[in-house]
């Protein structure tokens, strides 16, 4: 069992693995060590066939209030280049298992970017999303200008990035950034319930469907449709497809094997 200092991992429900950001004294700031541990935990869950969905969360006060500025305050451009910190974000982006972010309190800067690298977001009524990097003389670097624009559109993204303004959970929901809003007392349970729904689906189909949805962001409609069809055809080689269709015809519950 891997020992972590900045995060906690636990089994949230059948087929649902959870990760908790655990640096409450600094509002779960995403230090280099935190990101190393996150990559390790995500990849461990991804390699475990029993884990069919992942939930990541912080605490009631903060999901993550951004990067750890103390690690960057005196860094040069060459230091940042050599550090190559965004390589870890790319590894998280390549996780095949569906990921749900459960957000309460602040999700700012890198914290907001981390929620957007997930596949779905369940927000507490207290959640606040923002990209305030401009207020310290820089700009988003882990996808904030790209994923935020794709999620909520150019005009709203420009305002958030150029002014550093935070938006509420209600604004984020209305803009299409989050899937659901829940009372602060039950937001994590709501996220886990959604994760259990995903985990109950055939895992191969869920992974390939996630892959196809994400492909839509970096290809043309023609390329995306071709990719979708190949994944669709591929699933007909799976035992789960035969089981699912057989169960439908026989009017019984399917038993997924992930094969």
Your description of this structure?
Helix content is 46%, strand content 16%. It contains eleven helices and ten strands. The protein is globular and about 65 Å long. Helix 1 (32-47) links the parallel strand 2 (16-21) and strand 3 (53-57). It has helices at residues 32-47, 77-83, 86-93, 110-117, 144-152, 154-163, 169-175, 187-199, 203-215, 221-235, 239-250; strands spanning 7-13, 16-21, 53-57, 62-64, 99-103, 106-108, 120-124, 128-130, 167-168, 180-182. The strands form two sheets. Strands 1-2-3-5-7-10 form a six-stranded mixed β-sheet, sandwiched between helices. It has a four-stranded mixed β-sheet with strand order 4-6-8-9. With 259 residues, the protein is α/β, with parallel strands linked by helices. The chain folds into two domains: 7-199, 2-enoyl-CoA Hydratase, Chain A, domain 1, CATH 3.90.226; 203-250, Lyase 2-enoyl-coa Hydratase, Chain  A, domain 2 (Orthogonal Bundle).
Number of strands: 10
The number of distinct helices, counting runs of at least 4 residues, comes to: 11
Helix content: 40-55%
Determine and state the CATH class of the largest domain.
Answer: Alpha Beta
Assigned CATH architecture of the largest domain? Alpha-Beta Complex
Number of domains: 2
| Share of β-strand residues | 15-25%
Structural class: alpha/beta
- What do the pLDDT scores average to? 95
**Uncertain segments of ≥5 residues (pLDDT<50)?**
none
User: Biggest β-sheet, characterized?
Assistant: 6 strands, mixed
Query: Per the principal axes of the C-alpha atoms, what is the gross shape?
Result: globular
Would you tell me which CATH topology of the largest domain applies?
A: 2-enoyl-CoA Hydratase, Chain A, domain 1
| Termini gap | 27 Å
Instruction: Report Rg.
Output: 19 Å
Per CATH, the superfamily of the largest domain is 2-enoyl-CoA Hydratase, Chain A, domain 1
Q: Trace the largest sheet across and list its strands.
A: 1-2-3-5-7-10
What is the H/E string? EEHEEHHEEHEEHHEHEHHHH
């Amino acid at each position: 069992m891997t020992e972590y200092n900045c995060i906690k991992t636990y089994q949230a429900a059948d087929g649902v693995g959870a990760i908790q950001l655990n640096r409450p004294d600094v509002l779960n700031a995403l230090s280099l060590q935190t990101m190393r541990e996150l990559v390790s935990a995500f990849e461990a869950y991804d390699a475990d066939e029993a884990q069919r969905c992942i939930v990541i969360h912080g605490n009631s006060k903060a999901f993550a209030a951004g990067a750890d500025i103390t690690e960057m305050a005196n860094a040069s451009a060459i230091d940042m280049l050599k550090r190559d910190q965004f390589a870890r974000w790319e590894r998280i982006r390549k996780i095949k298992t569906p990921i749900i972010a459960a957000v309460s309190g602040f999700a700012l800067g890198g914290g907001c970017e981390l929620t957007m690298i997930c596949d779905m977001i369940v927000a507490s009524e207290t959640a606040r999303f923002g990209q305030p990097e401009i207020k310290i003389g820089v700009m988003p670097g882990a996808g904030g200008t790209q994923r935020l624009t794709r999620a909520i559109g150019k005009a709203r993204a420009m305002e958030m990035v150029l002014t550093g303004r935070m938006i509420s959970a209600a604004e984020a929901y209305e803009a299409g950034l989050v899937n659901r809003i829940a009372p602060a007392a039950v937001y994590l349970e709501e996220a886990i319930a959604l994760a259990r729904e995903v985990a109950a689906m055939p895992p191969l189909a869920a992974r390939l469907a996630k892959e196809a949805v994400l492909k839509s962001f970096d290809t043309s409609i023609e390329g995306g449709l071709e990719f979708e069809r190949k994944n669709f055809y591929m699933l007909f080689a799976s035992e789960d497809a035969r089981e699912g269709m057989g169960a439908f015809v026989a009017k019984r519950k399917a038993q997924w094997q992930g094969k």
